[in-house]
Specification:
By secondary structure, the chain is an alpha/beta fold. Bound molecules: succinic acid.
């Protein structure tokens, strides 16, 4: 039975031609679906015995006439809730992310064939908390390679939402193409009540297939919104939970298709200077918070860079991170909310004066006693309107090119 459905839905060799077999392919995957690999329990859900994966996706009759001339879109699946299957399908209960395959996910949305000739590829099938920087590098290399294909309009990456914003921003920095790359996830598993995955996937594929999406960088498409990967964040764990704060919503996916109202103007895509050739791992960068009474963090992991989320450091924190800079570690400060536009020197004027809180608060640092000249302290770097999480990714990528904090400040000002 399963085999028949696959053949009729024709997702291998990957072109989704659902054609006249309309109702037959209409989300009928009632047969058990095999697990493509180790299923991954989602934090906060039951980790109890693996559900026999899985009663499939609920049937929904739909008539689809595929468009044989539609643009080609490659869907690369990595796992997540969009590929999640519940222990008890059709409930609000526990589920395992990264269970359904790329083929199963796309086959469950027959409407895709109206807008795109969809190909699929399974990159991984995991909860996104298992996604590593090494996987980012492999994924970006793969996308850079497939986008060389003249017949491919764009790429969709299906991904768990927990780490979606990080992967999307890494791709935004390192995919050197003007073709659309759309990252999409879901907050409800595919077998749940009102899953959001199918409509999100449809919107993502329509966006990746659209000529309007060219030159917009990597985007996150969820809940009918098109968000720039630079700004998108998971604000909460329900549908509608992805947002961009004050900046970064580029458009919407309306019933007639994607509509753009804004385009990013900072560096990305073809204008990115980051070349992953010869890069397999990224330099270690740690992330920490500053807080009242804080003395600064010391690290045993020998990082090449550190990002401190802060609205202003204590004197002790300043001293700790200055000492760290003196050892050659690049220290980036990022406003806690990620909404700061002061400090990077990225505008037309000179960088705003920084307040040296150590000099204000530490009497020892401003006495008049003559001291031997100390080695100059390498400057710190200020992130401009980036969350600390994203600043960490930009610093990891920047450190593949240079360790010079002035050059890294230039990078933060441009991307
Ligand atoms: C995950 O990030 O893999 C699980 C959570 C989700 O996709 O919403």
């Amino acid at each position: 039975m399963r085999r028949e459905i696959r053949v009729m839905c024709g997702v291998r060799p990957t072109v989704v031609l659902l054609a006249l077999a309309v109702a037959a392919c209409a989300r009928p995957v009632a047969a058990p679906v095999p697990s493509p690999g180790p299923a991954t329990p989602v934090a906060g859900t039951s980790a109890a015995p693996a559900p026999a994966p899985a009663a499939g996706v609920a049937a929904r009759p739909v008539a689809v006439v595929p468009n044989p001339n539609a643009p080609k879109v490659l869907v690369i699946a990595t796992g997540g809730t969009i590929a999640g299957v519940q222990n008890a399908p059709g409930t609000l209960g526990a589920y395992r992310a990264g269970t359904l395959t790329a083929e199963q996910i796309t086959a469950s949305v027959p409407e895709l064939a109206r807008y795109a000739r969809v190909e699929t590829e399974q990159f991984s099938n995991v909860a996104s908390t298992l996604v590593t920087p090494e996987m980012w590098v492999k994924l970006a290399k793969r996308i850079n390679a497939v986008l060389q294909r003249g017949d491919l309009a764009g790429v969709v990456v299906t991904h768990g939402t927990d780490r979606l914003e990080e992967t999307a921003f890494f791709l935004y920095l390192t995919v050197r193409s003007n073709k659309p790359v759309v990252v999409v996830g879901a907050q409800r598993p595919a077998t749940g009540i009102s899953p959001d995955g199918p409509i999100n996937l449809l919107s993502a594929v329509r966006t990746a297939a659209s000529p309007k999406a060219v030159q917009k960088g990597v985007m996150v498409v969820m809940d009918d919104r098109i968000l720039s990967a630079r700004e998108s964040r998971k604000l909460y764990q329900r549908t509608g939970g992805f947002s961009t704060g004050d900046m970064g919503m580029l458009g919407v996916v309306a019933s007639q298709g994607p509509e753009f109202f804004f385009a990013p103007v900072r560096r990305f895509g073809e204008r990115s200077e980051f070349d992953l050739d010869g890069v397999d791992t990224l330099p270690k960068v740690e992330l920490t918070m500053s807080y009242p009474g804080g003395t600064g963090h010391t690290f045993t992991t020998n990082p090449k860079g550190v990002v401190v989320a802060t609205t202003g450091m204590t004197a002790a924190e300043n001293a700790t991170y200055r000492a760290l800079r003196q050892t050659g570690v690049v220290v980036v400060t990022s406003f806690t909310s990620g909404e700061n536009v002061n400090g990077g020197g990225g505008g037309d004027g000179p960088p705003p004066a920084r307040v040296d809180t150590t000099a204000q608060r530490d009497p020892a640092s401003r006495d008049s006693v003559a001291r031997p000249a100390a080695a100059p302290v390498p400057p710190g770097v200020t992130a401009l309107h980036l969350t600390a999480t994203k600043a960490r990714i930009l610093l990891m990528v920047a450190l593949t090119k240079t360790k010079d904090p002035r050059e890294i400040q230039r990078i933060f000002n441009e991307y």
